Automatic annotation (TrEMBL):
Keyword RNA-binding in annotation: no
Protein's name according to its UniProt entry: HTH araC/xylS-type domain-containing protein
Annotated HTH araC/xylS-type domain residues: 236-334
GO terms, molecular function: DNA-binding transcription factor activity; sequence-specific DNA binding
InterPro entries recorded: Homeodomain-like_sf, HTH_AraC, HTH_AraC-typ_CS, PchR_regulatory_protein, Tscrpt_reg_AraC-type_HTH
Keyword set, alphabetical order: DNA-binding, Transcription, Transcription regulation
UniProt lineage: Bacteria, Pseudomonadati, Pseudomonadota, Alphaproteobacteria, Caulobacterales
Listed PROSITE patterns: HTH_ARAC_FAMILY_1 (PS00041), HTH_ARAC_FAMILY_2 (PS01124)
Organism of provenance: Caulobacter mirabilis
Length: 335
């Protein structure tokens, strides 16, 4: 049933069986109902699981029925979010350390926020927008037990995925790679299953956490290549150009000329900022767009392939199966 026809909202919270002694009122970061609750005009379902001491998992699939602005407050924590669908923006509100910091919501984008003090924020959502996302929140105590707190405290603006920061808050974002997106989808599906398999939620949460931490601070001590601000802007411009016209037969040389970078610098920049090469990034975006078209817009396999730049359906099907583990026909049938 479409979300907009339900016109009601449910928030369900519980501890996993293997963490049954948890105090559900001890939310990490903020109460689960600060963003989505039955006091604002939304429909759909949100679930929060206390996975272990200091780790909450939240899965949302909701639709905003009216233009909505909500103010929230968050305690110190690490938040990891994968937004599958969504629009609008969030903002960290101004204080003595600086003005508002806006964070645009973009589909298939991974966000990380690490805070060391209580922060106030605002979320703006347009009417009709759908929010489907998975979120992990980790306490400082858990991060210390995992041996990751010191690395997080050292984060600064030189990190390749850094988007904005000021005293007490560091925010990063990245376009989701197929591996990360698939891990997020599996966690979201496990968290929304009926009945819920607690072991599956636990295992998939840990897998998603491990992938996310490698984007921030690899456990092997590896250093993520830094990119200066000027080159980052041009790399992001190149990524935007490809995302806006996926059917175009892009070449690295043409793209490099268009954004004013040498081919070598463009290729190095993509690997540093997005973790994949230029062509790999384009392929990832094409496949995810095709999957969205088939799953949400009832577009045929052939039409989806053509819309994202694949004239050969067999080649498209091979790439799709390699990325998602299923055929495009299966995605079309399950839509």
């Amino acid at each position: 049933m479409p979300l907009e026809t339900r016109r009601r909202f449910q928030l369900q919270e519980r501890s996993l069986a293997q963490h049954a002694g948890a105090d559900l009122s001890a939310c990490v970061g903020m109460p689960a109902d600060q963003y989505f609750n039955d006091r604002v005009p939304i429909a759909g379902l949100s679930r929060r699981f206390a996975v272990r001491d200091g780790l909450d998992v939240l899965a949302h699939d909701v639709q905003v029925l009216e233009n909505t602005v909500r103010e929230v407050q968050s305690d110190p924590c690490l938040g990891l979010t994968l937004l599958f669908d969504g629009e609008g923006e969030g903002a960290i509100l101004a204080d003595q350390d600086g003005p508002d910091i806006a964070v645009p919501y973009r589909p298939m984008t991974w966000y990380a926020s690490f805070s060391t003090r209580t922060l106030s924020g605002r979320s703006t959502a347009p009417a009709g927008s759908r929010y489907r996302l998975i979120e992990l929140r980790l306490s400082h105590d858990l991060l210390a037990r995992l041996g990751r707190l010191d690395a997080l405290l050292a984060l600064d603006a030189t990190h390749p995925r850094h988007r904005m920061s000021r005293p007490g808050i560091w925010v990063a974002s990245a376009v989701a790679t197929p591996v990360l997106a698939q891990a997020g989808e599996q966690l979201h599906a496990a968290a929304r299953a009926d009945p819920v398999d607690d072991l599956a939620v636990d295992a998939r949460a840990v897998h998603f956490l491990a992938l996310s931490m490698d984007l921030i601070a690899p456990s092997d001590g590896g250093v993520v290549d830094a990119v200066d601000a000027r080159r980052r802007r041009r790399v992001e411009q190149a990524a935007d150009l490809m995302r806006d016209d996926l059917a175009r037969p892009w070449t690295i040389s043409a793209l490099a000329r268009q954004v004013g970078l040498g081919e070598k610098l463009l290729k190095q920049g993509f690997r540093a900022v997005y973790g994949v090469g230029v062509i790999g990034y384009l392929q990832d975006q094409r496949l995810w767009k095709a999957r969205t078209l088939m799953a949400r817009s009832q577009v045929s396999v052939t039409e989806a392939a053509l819309q994202v730049g694949y004239a050969n359906p067999s080649h498209f099907a091979r790439l799709y199966r390699r990325a998602f583990g299923v055929s495009p026909r299966q995605t079309e049938r399950e839509a």
